[in-house]
């Protein structure tokens, strides 16, 4: 197995142990679930993405939170270790760098939970439930209320990122054991957890991936997003080419224009 790499976590998932000084907001996640604090974050972030209203703020922040979840998934499958990541041990920081609003998720300390020699499936189930039910779920519930979004829409941002990057990680790995862990662990996340763990009727990761023709290369396929990210409700944004809300005839027009450009 590859070894623990804090630089990798910071670069790819914005998980770090280093607090920034140049923040617009820095707050414990346990405080952020309070309505008045989540409202403050929404108010700060909305103009940074030129949001027409609060709804895209919810999907965008949901996407950033998905990075934390993906980071945990990666370390569990590749390094065979998890983190005890309770809300009172996590600080959410909002900042602007290179004219781009970004988030950083700062752990008080790396409280690692090593996988056992036997009973890995039970260990993994325990780690999933601790994080999704007790840490991420309260944040998403608070975010959904503050941005007037269905919780399902915010949860729905995560599978898009997971499906893309987990395939990428499998392709990049030279270790067949790691490749199998990546596949099997994600299958467990999708199939073994009931919807109630997320506060939903159905597990939000248990979705069918749909594919469409690549906009610039007819010989390739790209994934449709699992849920609309509401980019079209920001600034002069429009429906993404891979948006599930975009009608196929409109997608064909976009594809034709790209091929002729």
User: Structural class, judged by helices and strands?
Assistant: alpha+beta
Strand fraction equals 5-15%
Strand order of the largest sheet: 1-5-4-2
By CATH, the topology of the largest domain is Transferase(Phosphotransferase), domain 1
The SSE order reads: HEEHHHEEEEHHHHEEH
- Number of discrete helical segments: 9
Q: Helical amount among residues, as a percent range? A: 40-55%
Biggest β-sheet strands, sense, barrel: 4 strands, mixed
β-strand number = 8
Unreliable sequence segments = none
Count up the domains.
Answer: 2
Q: What is the 3D shape?
A: globular
Return the average pLDDT rounded to an integer: 96
What does the secondary structure layout of this molecule look like, with pairings?
Blueprint: H1 6-13, E1 15-16, E2 23-28, H2 29-32, H3 35-45, H4 55-79, E3 81-83, E4 90-97, E5 100-107, E6 112-114, H5 120-147, H6 151-155, H7 157-172, H8 176-192, E7 211-213, E8 221-223, H9 248-260
Parallel strand pairs: 1-5
Antiparallel strand pairs: 2-4, 3-6, 4-5, 7-8
């Amino acid at each position: 197995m590859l070894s623990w790499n804090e630089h990798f976590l910071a670069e790819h998932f914005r998980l770090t142990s280093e607090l920034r000084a140049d923040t617009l907001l820095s707050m414990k996640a346990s405080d952020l679930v309070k309505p008045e604090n989540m409202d403050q974050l929404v108010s700060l972030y909305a103009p940074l993405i030129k949001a027409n209203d609060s709804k895209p703020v919810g999907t965008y922040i949901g996407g950033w939170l998905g990075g934390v979840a993906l980071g945990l998934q990666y370390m569990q499958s590749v390094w065979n270790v998890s983190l005890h990541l309770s809300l009172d041990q996590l600080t959410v920081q909002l900042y602007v760098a290179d004219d781009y609003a970004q988030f950083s998720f700062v752990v008080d300390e790396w409280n690692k939970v090593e996988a056992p020699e036997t009973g890995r499936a039970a260990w993994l189930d325990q780690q999933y439930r601790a994080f999704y039910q007790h840490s991420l779920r309260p944040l998403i519930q608070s975010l959904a209320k503050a941005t007037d979004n269905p919780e399902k829409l915010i949860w729905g941002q995560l599978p898009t990122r997971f499906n893309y990057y987990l395939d990428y990680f499998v392709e990049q790995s030279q270790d067949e054991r790691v490749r199998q862990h990546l596949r099997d662990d994600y299958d467990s996340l999708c199939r073994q957890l009931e919807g109630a763990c997320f506060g939903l009727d159905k597990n939000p990761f248990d979705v069918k991936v749909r594919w469409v023709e690549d906009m610039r290369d007819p010989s390739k396929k790209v994934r449709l997003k699992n849920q609309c990210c509401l980019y079209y409700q920001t600034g002069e944004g429009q429906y993404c080419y891979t948006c599930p809300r975009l009608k196929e005839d409109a997608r064909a027009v976009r594809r034709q224009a790209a091929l002729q450009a």
